[in-house]
Amino acid sequence: ATPTALMVGTGRGAQLGILIKGPEVLETTRKVDTIVLDKTGTVTTGKMTLLAVHTADGTDETEVLRLAGALEHASEHPVAQAVATGAAAKAGTLPTPEDFVNIPGLGVQGIVDGHAVLVGREKLLADWAMTLPVHLERAKAEAEAAGRTAIAVAWDGEARAVLEVADAVKETSAEAIRRLRSLGLTPILLTGDNQAVAEAVAAEVGIEQVIAEVMPQDKVDVVKKLQAEGRSVAMVGDGVNDAAALAQADLGLAMGTGTDAAIEAGDLTLVRGDLRAAADAIRLARKTLGTIR
Ligand code: ADP
Ligand code: MG
């Protein structure tokens, strides 16, 4: 590859909303055959809203929103922002937590108004030997089957509520997946979210393979495993929890709308957060290198 041809390729990249870290990136871009896509913020908008609150018998909804909202206000997770915003809208001013810990991939815990509060995946409650009452378990299953994320709320050792949050699939995602497929790539959806939610989103955008309920630190192992199968892997992500996987992938594509950690770890940035630019990047790399071989 001559430097001039590569420069032409990367200049065109900038026009398409693709920033390429160095000319050597084009070579790996050309070769990828598998594309792993993070769900939240990559395939979906990542702008979640609180849709519903299901409470345990004898639990007051406003109290759920006050305590859960107060804790989530301290977290930057898209789920947390949905809960905090929804809670503030319905329950008014939220108290300030006396203590707060973020547990990546699981949720948050802390002390609010003297109560020990947990907000997050059912697994977080299970770790503290708490289970959801049957009617909340059912509400959770129904929400997830519909593609919504169900978040459990507990305090003082008891499960108290299930919150439903959801974000929308980006308008451009389905078309992007079609284009990636037509370039011969196999798309795989990777997420820390629940299996049912992941499958609903995958079906909506035309992805057949789903790897769900993966802890943030384990996303990198999913990429390694695919590489061990002999695949050349591209990974697209936006979150802090995607950074290691982006670095491990043969080609890391970061959403320009995402976190600095993801952008630093990636080889290539999709400036506008539009997944179609991933397909453009691959086409561009093949074209640029193709003409000089
Ligand atoms: P993703 O891979 O979709 O970007 P994460 O690995 O960050 O998601 O989180 C996985 C799951 O953990 C989320 O779908 C959510 O159910 C739960 N979770 C993570 N952080 C929080 C939080 N602050 N509040 C509630 N739930 C959370
Ligand atoms: Mg994400």
Automatic annotation (TrEMBL):
<protein>
    <submittedName>
        <fullName>Heavy metal translocating P-type ATPase</fullName>
    </submittedName>
</protein>
<comment type="similarity">
    <text>Belongs to the cation transport ATPase (P-type) (TC 3.A.3) family. Type IB subfamily.</text>
</comment>
